[in-house]
Design goal:
The protein is built from no helices and 12 strands. It is mainly β. The termini are close together.
Length: about 100
């Protein structure tokens, strides 16, 4: 698909192996909450309610009301979608920034 920035992304899947338009591959092998990527690193998500702990020891928190989500980092994310076009709104230093994405 083509993004609003004019670049293209392609996902070709065969089982757990994904090739994108840049020619790199991604592999996700999961056992429970532990996933191994093709790069040999592991990802772990342990969630209790809205709080998730990753394998790197950081925590993620998503508090959502409708389309508005507040993350643990204090930024706000808003996704407004119409068909395949999504407008992403994120807030940095009290300023709203708008990015449109086309899928």
């Amino acid at each position: 698909y083509q993004t609003v920035f004019g670049d293209t992304k392609l996902n070709l899947c065969s089982g757990n192996v994904y090739q994108n338009v840049f020619g790199d591959t991604k592999l996700n092998l999961c056992s429970g909450n532990v996933c191994q990527t093709v790069f040999g690193d592991t990802k772990l998500n342990l969630c209790s309610g809205n709080v998730c702990q990753t394998v790197f020891g950081d925590t993620k928190l998503n508090l959502c009301s409708g389309n508005v989500c507040q993350t643990v980092f204090g930024d706000t994310k808003l996704n407004l979608c119409s068909d395949n076009v999504c407008q992403t709104v994120f807030r940095i230093d009290r300023n709203w920034h708008y990015v449109a994405k086309v899928f």
